[in-house]
Amino acid sequence: MEKVSSKAERTRQFIIESTAAIFNIKGYAGTSMSDLTQATRLTKGSIYGNFENKEEVALAVFDYNLSRIIQKIEQLVQKAVNYHDKLMVYAQVYHSMMGGPFLAGGCPIMNTAVEADDTHVLLKEKAAGAVIQWKKKLVALIEEGIKIGEFKAEIDSAQLALSIIALIEGGMMIAKVTDSPASMDKILKTVELLVTQLKA
Fold first, then answer.
1. What does the alpha-carbon distance between residue 65 and residue 46 come to, in Å, rounded to a whole number?
2. Contact, 143 vs 160, CB < 8 A?
3. Backbone phi, psi, residue 90, to 5°
């Protein structure tokens, strides 16, 4: 039987979803309490009745934004017919964040990592955990591809996984800071080259 969420849980979820784009675009420091009350049309007291502080909202929003990316990636990975295409899903999904309707503000991992690097331990830990999980998923896909003979046996899966992440995240940063989505296209071609070179 499906669990019916409580009013408090529904309100928390509403606050998270209503403020997700704001935190992702403005960052933790740039998002004010008035931004939150305006987006949710709730009072400050109502927001703080569901979350201890702005930090708690930001951490929940990071999880929510990340879960949207993971869900989209997993759906496409399941549909992909070979391991080359499964790996390229990551490039496609992150490319769709560049100025598209999916996830306003771009990659929450990059946004959070850059902002929280020296200033916010809990947000930095969230971003670090997301990168570690992303690496694990890529390593698993590469090793499955090796196991079935689609990829060369001598590949260093951890090195390759980190290189793919660095190219995608670096590509997004360059495209964003230079207002040049074409830069992302060029960098994703390098990801495609890397993945194609894996083939046995």
1. 22
2. no
3. -60, -45
Residue 148 belongs to what H/E stretch?
none
| Residues, the chain | 200
151 - beta bridge partners? 199
Q: Give backbone dihedrals phi and psi of 35, rounded to 5 degrees, phi first.
A: -60, -45
CB 77 within 8 A of CB 52: no
Question: Is the residue at 189 inside a domain?
Answer: yes
**Cα separation of 23 and 32, whole Å?**
9
Q: How far is CA 99 from the centre of its chain?
A: 15
Instruction: Round to whole Å and give the CA distance between 92 and 85.
Output: 10
Q: What is the pLDDT of residues 101-155, one digit of tens each?
A: 667 777 888 888 877 767 788 888 999 999 999 999 999 999 999 999 999 999 9
Give yes or no for a contact between 50 and 129, defined as CB atoms under 8 angstroms apart.
no
Number of domains in the chain: 1
1 within some domain? no
Q: How far apart are alpha carbons 74 and 137 in whole angstroms?
A: 10
For residue 42, give the CATH number of its domain.
1.10.357.10
**Residue 96: alpha-carbon gap to chain centroid:** 12
pTM: 0.86
Q: Does 50 map to a domain?
A: yes
